[in-house]
Amino acid sequence: MTGGDGRIALRARVEEDILVDADAAFPIGIVLTELITNAVKYAFPEHRSGIILVQARRSGPGRVELIIRDNGVGMTDFREGSLGYGLVRSLVKQIGGELEIQGDAGVTVTISFSDASRFPPPGGRDPASA
To answer: Any idea what DSSP says for residue 120?
Structure first.
């Protein structure tokens, strides 16, 4: 993931049957790109190696939790006013989600939001009830 040197691995774990609304997919993609890029740039300085884990799971009925975690150096001071954080915060808000960041043992970002099951199917009726 870092120019072929193999020192940073990206792993993904995704539960089956998680539906994401089309209007949420684009912002989520941008958020994932921003968070993974930050982990590659800042979590593993010099020749340090590590893992970035992206996980999508259900956190309850109709809720999805997206977790981006690295085992890098952590984050001692969080830059509230940074452009990247502002972008992530704004996009999570756009999808009606909640954002939590922990930076002590590596960095863990948790985003929770409603899945697509909260939206009516195309045509407004549930095909199973037809």
So the answer is: P
